[in-house]
Amino acid sequence: MLSFPRRRESSEINTPRSGQNHGIDPLCGHFNQLDSRLRGNDEFLANELSGMKTKLLCAICSLVLLACGKTEQSRSTLAANQTVTTNTSISAPQATKLDALKIKSLYIGMDIQSVPNAMMAILAEQQLSDFGFTDVIKAGDGTQCVLMYTKSFLQAIDARMHERYGEARAPGKTDEELATSCINSDGVLTAKSGPDNKVARIEFNDVKDMFNAKDLSPSEFVKRLSKEYHILELKPNEAQTAWSFISPDGTKVEVDAKEVLGIPMVRLYMSKAAP
Questions:
Q1: Which member of 36, 121, 211, 266 has the lowest number of beta carbons within 10 Å of its beta carbon?
Q2: Closest residue by Cα to residue 275 from 242, 252, 245, 255
Q3: Considering Cα of 177, then 180, then 184, then 185, what sign does the dihedral take?
C-alpha cells in the first residue's frame, strides 16, 4: 500500500521548526550589518580626507616657506650686486686715470730729478752733439730747473765754477748766471718745478733743433706736432701766431710764433691748465 507525505499547511511551511533558527539571522540583521559597515566606511573616508587635507596644507605651507626663502635670497643677492655696483662706480675714476701727455719723454708732474736722463735721450735721438744740459739747479725762490744749452755756454760756466770752487759742478753750489737763467727760463729747453720736485712747466724755446723743424712754418709745425702726439686740435688765434690745446689729463699745450731780435722763433710750452 503506497503512502504519500502529508501536505503541510502554509503556516507550517513559513514557520520554522523547532531548532531550525539556530545560527540564522533575520534578513533585517543583514541590512543592519551592511548599514553599520557603510557607516564605518564613511568614518574611514572622513578620516582619510581629513588626513589628506592636513598633508595638503603642510605641503602648501612648505611651498610658501620655500618661495619666501628664495625671495629673501634673491633680495640679498640683489642688494649685494647693488653694493658691488656702487663700490665699483665709486672707485671707477681711479681705474680710469688718464695718462699724462708726453712730448719728447717730458710731461707735467714728472720728478725733476728724472729730467736730466730725459734730456740725454733727446740729445741722442736728435743727434745734437753741440748741446748739453745742467744738473738740477736750485734757485733762491725755491724754483728748481734743468736747462739745456749749447756746450760752449756750459763749458764757460763750468770753467768759472772750477775757478771759484775747485771743481766744475761743486755740490751745493750754483752759478748765479745759471740761477738767473733758471728763473727766466733762458735755456734752449727748460724744465721747472717748485719745492715739491714735480715738474710744473716745460719750455722748448726753439723747436727747430728739437723737432727737426728748421724748414717748417709755424702752422706746418703745428700740424706735425698734432699728428705725432695725437693732439686733436690746436686752436689758433686770429693772427695765426699762437695755438693752444688742453689735453684730457689737464696739460695745456701752447705754440707761440714771434720774432726775437729780428729772428723768427717758434716756441712750445707745456703747463698745468688752470682748473
A1: 36
A2: 252
A3: positive
CA 34 to chain centre: 85
What's the sign of the alpha-carbon dihedral 93, 99, 101, 106?
positive
What length does the chain have?
275
Cβ 251 vs Cβ 268: under 8 Å: no
Distance CA 126, CA 147 (A): 17
Phi and psi angles of residue 251, each rounded to the nearest 5 degrees, phi first = -85, 130
Query: Considering the chain, what percentage of its residues have pLDDT values greater than 70?
Result: 64
* Spatial CB neighbours of 123, under 8 Å, sequence gap ≥ 6: 129, 131, 132, 133, 148
CA dist., res. 186 & res. 180, Å (int): 8
Burial letters 64-88, b for 16+ CB under 10 A, else e: eeeeeeeeeeeeeeeeeeeeeeeee
Of 192 and 88, which is predicted with more confidence? 192
pLDDT confidence of residue 88: 37
